[in-house]
UniProtKB/TrEMBL annotation:
Species annotation: Streptomyces humidus
SUPFAM superfamilies to which the protein is assigned, alphabetical: Composite domain of metallo-dependent hydrolases, Metallo-dependent hydrolases
Pfam families: Amidohydro_1
Keyword vocabulary terms for this entry: Hydrolase, Metal-binding, Zinc
CDD domains linked to this entry: ATZ_TRZ_like (cd01298)
Stretches assigned to the Amidohydrolase-related domain: 61-409
Record's protein name: 8-oxoguanine deaminase
Amino acid sequence: MAADRRTVIENCAIATVDAQDTEHANGHVVLAGNRIESLGAGPAPRGLENVERRIDAAGHLVTPGLVNTHHHFYQWITRGLATDHNLFDWLVALYPTWARIDEEMVRAAAEGSLAMMARGGVTTAMDHHYVFPRGSGDLSGAIIGAARDVGVRFTLARGSMDRGEKDGGLPPDFAVETLEDALAATEETVRRHHDASFDAMTQVAVAPCSPFSVSTELLRQGAELARRLGVRLHTHGSETVEEEKFCHEMFGMGPTDYFESTGWLGEDVWMAHCVHMNDSDIEAFARTGTGVAHCPSSNARLAAGIARVPDMLAAGVPVGLGVDGTASNESGELHTELRNALLINRLGPHREAALNVRQALRLGTFGGAQVLGRSRETGSLEPGKLADLVLWKLDTLAHASIADPVAALVLGAAAPVTASFVNGRQIVEDGRLLYVDEDAVARSTRAQAQRLARTAAQG
């Protein structure tokens, strides 16, 4: 959208999620090109030039777009399997199938994952892809292409595994890379696809999978590579008691100390889950600025436990929300995580004081942008920031009797998305994607899921 072309949104409630949590019961937002030009209470200023569109958003809440900080898109075509397993048993059950993915399957799965998130209010997504079977094609390119088609802002966390079954790991040997190949392919992905500009639509992070599927040297050299290239680092950490036991037995220390010993704590790092963290671990994350992707639905699905999110926030740890892979969170959309983050944390020791609805919304917006290293650009509604925002319809049967629009959004049923803008471009209208045929994506994902199941059965 040209920088001097304006879109005016009026008559809406607004939750800016800025540093002061500014809200307007009835206000306006003006977009100019791909930026937020102004916002505030009441109608938009008179005399605005080059207004291409005016939206009467009565009955709506406008928020920053949701930011997803952890996902595995390829799992869209293995949903509904191993439904009664803990993490390690679940991985053992599914790795033989995942090890047979190819480019066509990954492209379809990425389209399904992205479409589901985008139609539910996600404007910035990420994918941690770490399964690269030999001869499977350009998987990173397929994922990035799908994100471009759907129209979301995107971070690819280029994952890797070099600890296969013969080395005591869980994945089949033909689904892992050598240390040298993993580092070389990761560097090539960064050089080909990473955009460091303010309004970048595609960024890349360095992301070895987990302590129990990668070597210490891959972690150490991966951190060195990321810092040499100036990109962020991502991995799984402290997800289960089994992982903690593995780290003590293998390395003689817990996960956080192990990560610190390999250079994996810092403001440029975020980790998924972080369920089993003691006070010392939380202090280390706060001291170093290491971020957390909180995935409440997946943690419950795999019986991993309840992450200490209230304690992390109190200590100053950056925390965002993640869908996680849809083989452990079959709904695949982030609104569920707003609600579940609040509800599940209230089952913990802080009870009703654990989180409130505005903290939950902050986790899903600004917190996520902070974790991905993009809080200067997005995550809150402020003049000069990128025009990534969502219009939630709250005047229907599902929400109309809830006076507080933020409570309606977080605690109510999934709110319809009337419009979603990314970089000033509308990508969703009345709950439907504008640039991707959802029905075609559904057919494609079903066909690829069936093909993968056949391939795995023959394997």
